[in-house]
Amino acid sequence: MKKFIFSTLCLACIILSCRAKDKVTQVEISDENTLEQRTEPQYLTLLFAGDLMQHGVQYKAALQPDGSYSYEECFRFVKDEVSSADVAIANFETTLAGGTPSTYPQFNSPDEYLLAIKEAGFDVLLTANNHSVDKGSKGICRTIEKMDEAGIPHIGTYVNKEERDREYPYIIEKNGFRIALLCYTYGTNGIPVPAPHIVNLIDTVQIRKDIKKAQSMKPDCIIACTHWGTEHALLPNKAQRDVANFLLREGCDHVVGGHPHVVEPVEVSTDKEGHAHVLAFSLGNYISNMSRPNNDGGMMLRMKLTKDAETGKVYLEPGNADYCLTWVSRPVMSKHKNFRIYPANVPETMLNATERAQMKKTLTTERELFSKHNKGIEEYEPIVAGTDAH
Asked: Alpha helix locations (H) across 178-221?
């Protein structure tokens, strides 16, 4: 009898252990202290960055004598700012298909690029964009596999419907918050998505179902990330506004967009309860080798969410959303070996005359654009790693 009881207890422990493990795989970013009784408001800082591109010149610049690739220099000066956020999110606009890297129009990047992005402090990567299917089935599956191996949560592409049903919408649990994250793209450059794989497309019928599913999961907040718009356009088009209005009307709290490879305005509205809702049309390129006007500029968007200690309600206070501008220096200009992302407040002494002139030109265009079209949001000065600037 004692043997039977002992065996039963062991079986129960195994079942509970398996269920706990399943929970961890569904929610990669967790906080063990979410059940503490709190008397003060809780806060969660989210940081969003734009397109993580990887052109041929970039991976050639990262190539080392031993055949490996190093991207540490690319993120050196933004790493502290990215890492300061509770959760940092960016758009991974390439694939990890393995083998020989390739550039535009069908991207395939070294695995080291992903690891450098993680080391820079990014916690979640968006994979639904127009380059998701660049390398077909292998590109989709191996990108997912490598992100899983690296322990980086990702949303937007799936091996099959069963995986999407299990993992989407994605729920972030951190600091006692539950954030539902959605991700969609306008298309895949005309390349069909190979069955049975799934790339989340901007389809209002499906999105409405996804939002309802997200709401059933009882999140504190729903954020939609959209890959949309007209490339190189500094202002959103009608389709972007139509989709944004749909998302907000259906229950999303905030919308963060990308794809145009330049920044577009950010609008913060306030509801009848006095809570803020962010609509960022495009965060621009975070890093790339694109050289058209303003392609070298981007921004990091920051939101500090509040959870009321008494009611448990989560909201964004007006003034608790802001942004900082970034600029990419290319080796052809800097004479450094690798690309570098600089915050706008980087000390000028760190740049040569050519860099200073180009950075000033891009930042001036962006600030003039934002002064005319931004609503309810201001620029802030981020931490600049390795300097006294902040």
From this structure: 204-216
Phi, psi of 100 (to 5 degrees): -75, 130
pTM over 0.85: yes
- Tell whether the model's pLDDT for residue 187 goes beyond 90: yes
pLDDT confidence of residue 29? 54
Alpha carbon distance 301, 47 (integer Å): 6
- Mean pLDDT of the region 155-183: 98
Residues 330-356, mean pLDDT to the nearest whole number:
97
Token pair 């790693």 is at which residue?
Answer: 385
What are the structure tokens assigned to 34, written together? 């979410």
Query: Cβ distance 359 to 342 under 8 Å?
Result: yes
The CA angle 7-9-13, to the nearest 5 degrees, is 115
* φ, ψ of residue 176 in degrees (nearest 5): 85, 5
Bridge partners, residue 126, by sequence: 91, 155
Pairing of strands 378-379, 124-126: unpaired
Query: Options 3.30.930.10, 3.40.190.10, 3.40.50.40, 3.60.21.10; which CATH number does 46-379 get?
Result: 3.60.21.10
Cis omega (within 30 of 0) for bond into 196? yes
Q: What is the pLDDT of residue 7?
A: 44
| CB-CB contact of 243 with 201 (8 Å) | no
